[in-house]
Design goal:
Radius of gyration: 14 Å
Number of domains: 1
Number of helices: 1
Number of strands: 9
Helix content: under 10%
Strand content: 35-45%
Order of helices and strands: EEEEEEEHEE
CATH class: Mainly Beta
CATH architecture: Sandwich
Largest sheet: 5 strands, mixed
Structural class: mainly beta
Length: about 140
Amino acid sequence: MGWAAVVVLALLAAADTGANSPGEGGDRLLRLTTTAPVVTTEVRAEEPTRLRVRVIEIENPTGTAFGVTATIVGEGTGQRREIGRFAVFPPDQTGDYILPVGRDIQDLLREGSDTAEFALVRETRETADLTVVLEPVWE
């Protein structure tokens, strides 16, 4: 039986719902852009110890600096806990980023949370176009 959770990934730039293409071991691909700052997806995992965020594609013609913040939100209770944050550097470099999942996050997952929210947040007020495709993988 899988556990679920609400995760907020705030990308120091913005978000738009992505394709439902599941990756190996991942929940699905999420497309983040400067026009829609929040994406929600289900998270299923049995007592994960880390969240791997695969940054698969970046379209960042102006080289705008950005990062990601991951937060889990308890279903029903609305409790929010930050999992962690990272900066993508250089700002056009894809790769995997690992965020440890603490006991408090695991407790929220056991309580039956079932939504993950990913949000892109800019480091500056620039309005430059930015698109990032992510795949969250609970391990």
